[in-house]
């Protein structure tokens, strides 16, 4: 963490190499989040690049270096939302890799796809918090910082989103998954 803060301070002063090291640490996470929003590699790369440009230009305005991760994730989400508002008919698609599918049983693949399809049907506010919480493993506090709303609202959106998933799927595997998630929150 100390090294990251030093890199942020150097990047704020215009050190492009320090900025590159910061972004390099986050590239997989940022790309995956963009891909989840826009559903194809080319658009995800475009959003990722736009995020990097905006972050580099806005970095001097970042007051607290400890919030770098949430700050850049917020930029990425805003870039993704802007893209989606221009592309009204785009649906979310999970970036599933072939090697992951090969290691899954047939029933696990079906459960995984059913869950993902149900997630796509949720309102954006529920979908966003669930993606950040369970696919990116952010804490409620971090999600509140990213989407700029109170922690109580994030918790409510998570609960309501999970409830909506349960209603859509009404299957044994989703009930077990939701119950385990609710115990962890």
UniProtKB/TrEMBL annotation:
Sequence ranges assigned to domain RNA polymerase sigma factor 70 region 4 type in this UniProt record: 113-162
Alphabetized UniProt keyword annotations: Sigma factor, Transcription, Transcription regulation
GO terms of biological process kind: DNA-templated transcription initiation
Organism domain of life: Bacteria
The keyword Lipoprotein belongs to this UniProt entry's keyword annotation: no
Gene3D superfamilies the record matches: 1.10.1740.10, Winged helix-like DNA-binding domain superfamily/Winged helix DNA-binding domain
SUPFAM superfamilies in the cross-refs: Sigma2 domain of RNA polymerase sigma factors, Sigma3 and sigma4 domains of RNA polymerase sigma factors
Record bears the keyword Ion transport: no
RNA polymerase sigma-70 region domain ranges (all copies): 23-88
Record Pfam families: Sigma70_r2 (PF04542), Sigma70_r4_2 (PF08281)
GO MF, one example: DNA binding
Entry-linked NCBIfam families: sigma70-ECF (TIGR02937)
Family designation: Belongs to the sigma-70 factor family. ECF subfamily.
Name of this chain's protein: RNA polymerase subunit sigma-70
Organism: Paenibacillus paeoniae
Origin organism lineage: Bacteria, Bacillati, Bacillota, Bacilli, Bacillales
